[in-house]
Amino acid sequence: xxxxxxxxxxxxxxxxxxxxxxxHFCPRCGKIQPVTPGSDHFEFxxxxxxxxxxESELEKSFYxxxxxxxxxxxxxxxxxxxxASIERSSKLNDAYRTLRDTIARVTYLLSLEGYKExxxxxxxxxxxxxxELNMQIEELKTARNDxxxxxxxxxxxxxxxxxxxxxxxxxxxxxQLLRRFEDWxxxxxxxxxxxxxxxxxxxxxxxLSHRSYIRHLVHSMQEEL
Length: 225
Hints:
This protein is mainly alpha-helical and 225 residues long. Helix content is 63%, strand content 0%.
């Protein structure tokens, strides 16, 4: 399930021919290398596919690499090096934008592990509430159409209370996700069997699905308010 280093295409340095160059710069001639086909965002930063990341260290690496890859440093270089600097700068920005965000990071990991973007599904404990929430939204719309200020105020209050409850549920889901992050990292450290890792991945995918559903519901409620 988890890709290994051998799954990433290896290529020789285009400048000096050093074999199996898999780095930003050739260790022999020092020339910047094109982005390796098949490399992922974790690899780009020299990381394993763990989810608990030191974000301050990630930021330091980002700024250090930004300076090294900046196209201005390659104005007088060959076309191959100039193109490589642009490729790596672009890849760096994409990788950093993804890995620095907790939800984007786990979503990306799941995509690497073969999971499609999760559908929005209501958590089982929210199913009964959804009908009530939709009714409250309709009541607010009706009160506005009838220009009934008292009913509008009451409907808004009920919706605001429901919104606060949903935001608490989102916070709870985020806490559960962080616990699954630790489970995933532990499984990698222990070289756990595929079924165990899949169980963790399945659970994270399910939590993201629930999170997406609630966020959509929250957005709809905020628009009405």
